[in-house]
Amino acid sequence: MRTRPVLVLVAVVLIMIGAGVYVLLRPTGAQVRAVGPGPEETGRAYLASWQDGDLSEMGRMVVSPPADFAQRHLDFAQDLDIESVRLVPGTLVRGDGLHAELPFRGVRKVRNLGDWPFESTLRMVLREGRWRVVWLPETLHPALAGGGRIAFKEIPAPETEPVTGSGAPLPQDSGAEGYRGLFGAGAEETTGYALEATGADGSKRELAVFRPPHVKKLRTSLSRPVQAAAARALDGVGHPAAIVAVRPGTGEVLAVADRLGEGNGGQSAFRGLYPPGPAFKVVTATALLSEGLTPATRVGCPRTYTPPKGRIFRNAADHPASEAVTLTTAFALSCDTAFVEQAAAHLPSNGRGLVRAAELFGFNAEVPGLGESCGRITPPGDVDELASDAIGQGSVVASPLCMALVAAAVQDGSWHGPVLVPSRSSRVRQVSRRASLPEATVTALRSMMRAAVADTTGTSDGAVSADGTRGLPPGTAGKAGTARAADGREHAWFVGYRGDLAFAVLVESGGEAAVPVAARFLRAL
Question: How many whole angstroms separate alpha carbon 182 and alpha carbon 178?
Fold first, then answer.
């Protein structure tokens, strides 16, 4: 009779051992085997049904779809006027065996407007042995996450879109973005549309912009390679800066890369007025040459000079030349005292000679298409004002555009007003104003500007850049230096020409940085 209890005990032990083995060997969440298609096949099938507009099939592949699943898709397409959608799956990302993600790219076609590209992700889960899509609003578009909304908004759009002279679009991040309206001045306006996302926090961002279908391309004077070279030359410059390049024989603006800030409506390279400092010596030399001086005329370059009944002027470099130098050398050295002394000795004290020379280069005249002058000079009231103006300070102010045209006039022999839209364009026509310079003066200025670049004495005019490695390419002529602004900052200038290209570089608070920027620009062409 004792055998029966023993058998019962053995049976209980065997049952307990079996249960333990089952617990150890039963499938875990990561070991659940899926029945049917895997996550990638499921995701691709869902995207195919979505693209075909089969909402019923899509709903069958979603785990716990919301009651209004189909209606949400229909409302989204109707509200945003979506005609169709194209979807391209990416590479599946597997999770812990129960979860996976399939990124995808899509393009929605908006009726009468165009394509709207987007990216999103299908999130999937293994539920009851089958892979299912976990649907969230952001599956439709990431901007819908957290209660976000997408809606159309009207935007003013120009009837004409400025492009380069070749018909190519402006380079990205070109520095000319603020000039689109100026190049397209006079164009009628119409309405465009943007798809705008509003986040749960109220923040807004544009997802797509649709320009009016009747937008016409307006060919401007800008050259895509020259514009790109100017923009890239400013990359990495740690101060506000700008480059303007023009074609000397026509005045056509080939590039405007403006990173001077938001002042002047974002058009500071055209409308901003800065003391040109030593770069203005091109104009002062023109006035002196007209009074009989030549590039070989011997002039003094003392440490300081005081004009009769005037104040003391000092050389910016604060060192005298060892002896008298030629006017060309004084120009190359940026010897302020030499130009102050010669201006006081040879130019009328009322400043007529200097003002007249400046006006040969477009100062004090309204620029067609700009509606204002690109440079100004006021007749001086005494010798001190004349001396200050002669070295590009005092009442003298100019924009980078104005100084590029000064260099262009030396290269061509005639000053041409700026042209933004060449006459071959039918929509907006511009004709350049022209003023010839005396032939002997032009020849002298060219030799002086070549000498200024050839000088390697360590001045800012030197052909060697600030890092001592890459200098200005052969054939460059120009004038560099720094000018003190009213707020005390020193702005760096370099104006010059090479071949059929004239330019001006301005770097605010840049010391001697204008020369290496010009070198990068010219070597990129």
Answer: 8
